[in-house]
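Re: your question from the hallway

Yes, I did run it. Sequences:
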Amino acid sequence: MRCDVITLFPELFSPFLDVGMVGRAVKAGLLVVNLIWLREFGEGVHRSVDDRPYGGGPGMVMMAPPLMRAIESIEREKRSLLLIMSPAGEIFSQNMASSFLKFDQLVIVCGRYEGIDQRIVELSGAREVSIGDYVLSGGEIPAMVIIDAVTRLLPGVLGDEASSAEESFKEGLLEYPQYTRPRTFMGLGVPEVLLRGNHKEIEEWRRAQALLRTKARRPDLFERLLLTKRDMELMERYSQQGE
Ligand code: ADE
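Structure:
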């Protein structure tokens, strides 16, 4: 996967691209990230990239010409997707991350200020994407969120460890709680069922915990689940028993 990121602050990406899973993917050549400094495409001696909004109002808007020059400077692969990070975009999700795998290239525009000139969206056919219902100071962190979520799905980046969490999220369920050593920590033990080694019982307990958590924390997701008779029985059993 190749990602071209248009930003006013390329330096924000350095530790992100150097360490951990993303760092390993870059070193292995599975992920190539090309940072494009928007300022280089700015207007006039000051290389301006923003101006006041037509119609008035607070803040500044990113001008179309520098953005278009930056977008056009990028060599596009055949299967390439252009994304603009914006709090007014469609909400990013695990399913959207998976759907990006059919592309060889993501071109990501990071907005700053009050947003970008709408004509860029119209002329470029970009998809506007938001990472959630809150306003950040720029699209750089959202771009990193998308690159991270997509990179961990690239073949060869993670082993099997990724798959179970992904599958449960795709199904619309939150993950069950996890425990590791020590067996007792500050007076708290580990649910007995996980220590008994009965795989069927463990699977049922985990399923019940995932269902009960989703119901309590994400009623919006829970409502959309297609529960089986067994799911209802498990929830009933473990909501009383605890474990
Ligand atoms: N820019 C500012 N806030 C954002 C958000 N929540 N998602 C994407 N881009 C943004």
